[in-house]
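pasting for ref
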Amino acid sequence: MATIKDVAALAGVSITTVSRVLNFDDKLNVAAETKKRIFEAAQKLDYITSKQKKQKEKEINIGIVNWYTEGDEIKDPYFLSIRMAIEGRCTEEGMNFSYLNLKSDNGNKTFDGIIAIGKFGTTEIEEMKKVSEKIIFVDSSPNDLEYDSVVIDYEGGVKRALIYLHELGHINIGYIGGQEYVENGSIKVNDLRLDAYIKFMNSLGNLKENNIYLGSFLPEAGYELMKEALKEKKIPTAFFIASDPMAIGAYRALSEDGYKVPEDISIIGFDDIYTSQYLTPALTTVKVYTDFMGRVAVDTLKESIRGELDVCRKVVIPTKLIKRESCKSI
């Protein structure tokens, strides 16, 4: 049987760090990549803490379906953070989990329940239902009456960000965001961030279609879209950027073209990924509680599997505006 010492050796960290991470010590400041190594090492060695041994009742087997690829997770750690929180909560609760590939597994695996991270089309959902009827979606809600879900209050987060920019005197505010698709790229997913931006700018009577730039939610798209925006004659004094990785790319584009943040252009991101606070200047952004999303998803699915939920549950997680140094009054 594996020991905590074995986990520490495999993860390349101290025994104390392993213990605090696996026991979810909120006061421990450890990089997400380090946490990932520890959880993966514990899983590989089948290590469980003494607390988990006591808590373990009937074994529950969870299937995790990822929308993003592993490469995309590295570039945009939003979904990585959610997945790690799910894995951590499963480990804490003594629940077994493994990954389900809808294309290759072909219904050969069976699970007590499924956690689907991201957005999925009808075809993909039908494939999941062949494996388990108990499905919870994280970051999307395809059917409130049929499936449990954990989602973000996108509208509230965007609105708070735009109100803040407006209070600083910004009227001409641009939008840089992504487009997402399901059903092998044939159906575009409606983005609530863009909807909230359009609604707010309409309320000001200042919506300009040429101030909206759309690509993917990755750094390179943020870079290219900001380059495109800087070619316009009248550049917005501020941009709301729909993901922090995109904002990182936009920072580089601005720097290359001789613009300073926030002296020339104010920037607000969305997600509050770990590196946002270390940008120069530190990025003002909308914080999403990805750890909480993952934990709530596991707890809700567990209740569903045990028959403790009479109706489907949709949990809407609030966001928080984190004010740093990338915005200024004009």
